[in-house]
Design brief:
The two termini are 41 Å apart. The chain is globular and about 75 Å long. By secondary structure, it is an alpha/beta fold.
Amino acid sequence: MTTAKPLTSWRKFWAQRFGVAPFLPMSRAEMEARDWDSCDVVLVTGDAYVDHPSFGMALVGRLLEAQGFRVGIIAQPDWKSAEPFRVLGRPNLFFGVTAGNMDSMVNRYTSERKIRSDDAYTPNAAPDRRPDRATVVYAQRCREAFSDVPLVIGGIEASLRRIAHYDYWSDKVRRSILPDSKADLLLFGNAERALVELAHRLAKGEKIGDIRDLRGSGFMVPRGWGKVSRGDTPPERRDTVVRLPGYEEVKDDPLRYAEASRAFHLESNPGNARCIVQQHGERDLWLNPPPIPLTTAEMDHVYGLPYARAPHPSYGDAKIPAWEMIRFSINIMRGCFGGCTFCSITEHEGRIIQSRSEESILHEIEDIRDKVPGFTGIISDLGGPTANMYRMACKDTKIESACRRLSCVYPGICENLNTDHSALIHLYREARQLPGVKKILIGSGLRYDLAVRSPDYVKELVTHHVGGYLKIAPEHTEAGPLSKMMKPGMESYEKFKRMFDAASKAAGKEQYLIPYFIAAHPGTTDEDMLELALWLKRNGFRLDQVQTFLPTPLAIATAMWHTEKNPLKRDPNSERIAVARGGRQRKLHKAFLRYHDAENWPLLREALKRMGRADLIGSGKKHLVPAWQPGGLSQTEQPRAKPRRRRATY
């Protein structure tokens, strides 16, 4: 893997003399209390400001502060005018804008396009505290507030919308977020390296329009602009770029969209990725290769910064649900090499696992014990995107740098992948021994196809770190949808369940697996959902919470949903993908997951008769739904909703 300048090797900016702020300022009064006449960087976020590394603006702000810069935060501003964006004055270097820890459309709308009644990243979960497409709106207001200040966008919303992308909420292909926001620069992925370098270069007087060589950055240029990244790519790829089908092509042609999706995802390995170019009208969108992952020492530095580990005092006694959920949890790594097609983690954090040291993690547990009010001795999670990829990596860095696979574990676990769980087992044991720690729970989702390779890990996990229930995500039981998800078959699940049950019994504990499944994923037929429902009934599962597939920007599964073609294949046009696009079919797929809910029985009975499976209607053990209906619910199908206009299929 290409090396990069360490985060801590930069000479600190002169403003380091102001020291560390208890909280990064959100008002002029806080700035004046620290004798600041201005901020070097002002960060604008759609989330409440919680000074904790799980909140992007806190992590970015503390990182820049450690470099010597004065950083202010404008959290959840009123976007209806530019005035709230002037509250901290004109930033000396740049505005940094993000929608927050979630895409603003995912945050506000359900998979059925209904407005959510709450927002976990807002005090007291209040809704409507951020606009739709928040990055674009905030960026425009920053321009109105100070038109001459460089404008940088980032975070997951910017990352997932960095090229032309299908937008589920408007049901159309939108252009890159860069021209819509009119930002000078987009930083995608985990942007610590690019952000630190950008701040120092701007502080030395460089113009942001001249900074075109940052890995992990995107920008708009005139057609035909031909510079290539300054040498961080391998020699054999330095003078090549990948030109995706342009916005004007992909917005109207599903095949070209699928081809663009495939080409884009093949350029995701920092070791061999090339620059990506996509035409947007008279200009080109230019994306440099992805950022070089952080080393363990750099991860320790980022997570060891002086966070207050609390919401900003201006929120008073208000509860911020996202903070309440993670206040006693610890992120031990980032990235995921699973490559699940419906997931945004890979597009944002990358496939290479970046792990913290054991010492750093144990120190954070002690910090929580000593500094966070309300700690009762229970750590709610030691995890990350997954629970058990800690310190896993390719056995050979040369092979890793050359690899073009989209997943290290599908269709099978790569023989070059080190799946050793011993470092994680040792971490668990050391964490349990810390004074004042009563219990360490594992709340992140477990990758069970990896876990079964380490019986010692399964025993350690089940004996000491399961609080009665353990969540895992098979997502489906049938080969068709699983192949489109790039998820393992049920053989791995069954093997893990046997190991889990045996270890629970040996420990004298009654513990249960909680499997998660997705309804209406591309590639899923009605028959697939019926088989999943039958599997659930045979195994005694009655799911309370289920999820319907939500097409998020940039995901491969979203390309399948939009185009009905398969970007996983060299010729995406070679396979037609079944898509449950209509609202009634999506409702049916969700109903199969909740076959036990009487409200779903009329819809399921109608579907079973249509599918020729009326034999599953009755009151026997082998029946899926009864023929009778409880009082108060109709025995016949409920009236059809007015159908939404269906766009053309291809």
